[in-house]
Amino acid sequence: MRHVRFGFVGIFLGALLLAGCQNSTTTTTVKGQKVITVWHWMTDREAAFQQLAKDYEAKTGVKVNFELYAPSDAYSQKVRAAAQGVTLPDVFGILGEKRDFASFIKAGHILDLTPYMEANQGEWKNQLFPKALAISEFAAGNTYGITPGFYGVPIDVMTIQMVYNKDLFKELGLDPNKPPATFAEFIDIGKKIKEKNMQGLVSGWGEVWMIDCLANNFAFNIMGKDKYLATLRGEVPYTDPDWIKVLSLFKEMQDSGVLATGLVTMINKNAEQFFANSRAVFAFNGSWCVNVYKGMNPTLNYAAMLPPRVSDKFPMSVWGGAGSSFMVNARAANKEEAVKFLQWLTDKDQQAYLAQTTNNLPANKDSLKKIPDILAQFSAGMDVATHPNVWGISEFPAVIEALDKGIQSIIIGEKTPEQIASEVQKIKERELAKKRK
Amino acid sequence: MRLKSTLENYVFVLPAVTIFVIFYVIPFIWVFQLGLFDWDGILPTKTFVGLANFWEIFTQDKIWWASMLNVGYITLIALTFQNLLAFLLAWACDREIKMKNFYRVIFFIPPVLSEVVVGLVWQWILDGNYGLLNGWLHQAGLQAWARNWLSDPQTALTTVAVVHCWKGFGWGFLIFLAGLQTIPKELYEAARVDGANAWHSFKHITVPLMIPVVVLVGILTVLGTMQAFVLIIAMTGGGPAYHTQVPVLRILASMRGSSRFGYACAQGITFGVVLILISFIQYRFSKQSRNT
Question: What is the mean pLDDT of chain B?
Fold first, then answer.
């Protein structure tokens, strides 16, 4: 009899367990009060978000729960898992490539914000930087098969550029207000850096996407956007002389001494510490670094610059656009409330507050007036900004990995640019063949 | 009556079976099933590709097999260097030495530390520019030995393996110590009476009686090391190039970098089969040594 009792207790516990495994939904109301849940990964903006949530509740009576999940890798996994379990919150961000974004839309997880953006002669849309908005836009004829429109709202803007330490420039006998404009000048400075036994460029090239970013900048400058996109389409091989030139630049940088030692396994957090502590002359980093450097060394004397141009044939481009974007869950009960909240969040005053408290570039054009000088330098990069998410076509991940890891191999002197170009092209052909099947 | 008793027994084990089925059997079946599909992890639709993912792993994915070799190398170092160190330290602490309890605590600190923290701390120690190790080498006049330990392809994997050993030897130490303490002291006393010296006692009493423990530690070391990745992410991110890539990093790259969940599942199954095979071989080996 006792065994049977134990058995029933077991069944009860099992049932409880199964009940716990079933889909949960975000709480939409608490005691009659509407609640919006927002998932984000931005540790540096958490305090500002909480303050804005309080302000919004006081203004509208709608409670906003900002839930922070960090680091970004863990956040990304959580969002994917929630998408698979159909338990996404009212508002969330997607970290990934445009292809992933498209899959979320196809799976019905993301609300098309176009009607809201276009309402009142595009009042909401017109407040925001077009390049930031373009990150979450699917244009007509996009290769992902998504209905054209806006599927996300930028809450800040970023550009990825280079920064240089003005004090170290003086130590090198250089004019601190004249950063290198050409690749040849940059290499010359590299030689001076080597002579003085200093460290040159630091960046998170251990997290390979930042190598990809600089390689893209050089590629746009050397071959232009059209030829670059033709490569993505498979019409131009990676063994093309222009691509070999792009890869050779990394060898040239390494040989000149302009790259810091240990760069190929450096994570960006360490690179930021090196630069903030004046241990490196240059850094390749995003505009988010302004806040990071301020936290690490408020007296750091530095300025932003574009990556040095290699050719005068095409303009130098940098990656830029929306730093972070939020999407509305198409299945959320409070989706209308969520849209209203995002409209409020991207309004001039809230954007100015976010920019001032977190040192990120605002997504709202009217909030740019009171930003620090260094942020203004980064915002100037928006004029030449581009981003993989606006190209309408993506490179195969296997090809990106081969290119980025290949550049690491070039830097450590293991392989030549020609070898890497040939290896990358083989992978490209393999992926194209797979796609054709 | 007999039927009632049988049913009672089944009801009694039902909770355990339910938990096992939910958390082990069903996920395993799903992972295998997903390995047969091309799926990005988000879309509700999946494309059936049969064994194509497995075929790609075996015929095209050279980096996967290179990562298997890398982890094999780390495991080899862990099996030899790490376990020898653990055994010697356990043997020393089992003897009547001063402050042996203090050493026991000290040796067990690295395994309980967070792998990410250990990885980042070692990254600072081994940094090519401002690292402590290179600083000490310079002070000792050995600047010719200083290098970028984690960025140099010639040293990166071995350096990661050594740090892995430092992090993991405490587990082996603890198990070896427990094993040494189960050996009856009378055996040593009897040997001493018969004229055996310390080396003879070690060779003819300690070593034979410790073989089952050595095999157990060996199995745990292999399984633990083959699945290592957190420390490696924190120290090198799998670089430079592919020099410190290990299978779990490749599975993560397929899932997160390429959004190929189906392929990642196939890699997971392949890796699981390799681990089961190794465990089986070790089990057979342990059975044989016990019989001997």
Answer: 90
Per residue in B103-128, pLDDT tens?
888 888 898 899 989 998 998 899 88
Q: Do B22 and A17 touch (CB under 8 A)?
A: yes
pLDDT at A22: 44
Q: Is the ipTM of this complex over 0.90?
A: no
Are A133 and A389 contacting, i.e. CB atoms less than 8 angstroms apart? no
Span B215-226, average pLDDT: 91
Pairing of strands A63-68, A33-40: parallel
Structure confidence at residue A23 as a pLDDT band (50, 70, 90) = very low
Question: Distance between CA atoms of A416 and A413, rounded to whole angstroms?
Answer: 7
Determine the Cα–Cα distance for residues A268 and A404; give it in Å rounded to an integer.
Answer: 15
Task: Give the Cα separation of A158 and A286 in Å (integer).
Answer: 6
Domain boundaries of chain A, sorted by first residue: 26-158+321-388, 159-320+393-436
Q: Tokens in use for B13?
A: 């084990």
Tokens of B270: 């392949």
Residue A261 is nearest to which of B11, B16, B128, comparing CB atoms? B128
Q: Which of B121, B151, B245, B263 to mutate to test the interface with A (most CBs of A within 10 A)?
A: B151
Structural fold of domain A26-158+321-388:
D-Maltodextrin-Binding Protein; domain 2 (3.40.190)
Confidence of residue A373 (pLDDT cuts 50, 70, 90): confident
Residue A92 pLDDT more than 60? Answer: yes
Find chain A residues with C-beta within 8 A of B257's C-beta.
397, 401
**Distance (Å, rounded) from C-alpha A19 to C-alpha A16?**
5
DSSP string, A392-426: S----HHHHHHHHHHHHHHHTTSS-HHHHHHHHHH
Residues of chain B with C-beta less than 8 angstroms from the C-beta of A11:
11, 14-15
Q: Which residues pair with A64 in a beta bridge?
A: A36
Equal CATH topology for A26-158+321-388 and A159-320+393-436: yes
Q: Over 60: is that where the pLDDT of A290 sits?
A: yes
Which has more confidence, A18 or B199? B199
Going along chain B from its start, the domains and CATH numbers come out as 63-291 (1.10.3720.10)
Domain A159-320+393-436 maps to which CATH number in 3.40.190.10, 3.40.50.300, 3.40.50.150, 3.40.50.1360?
3.40.190.10
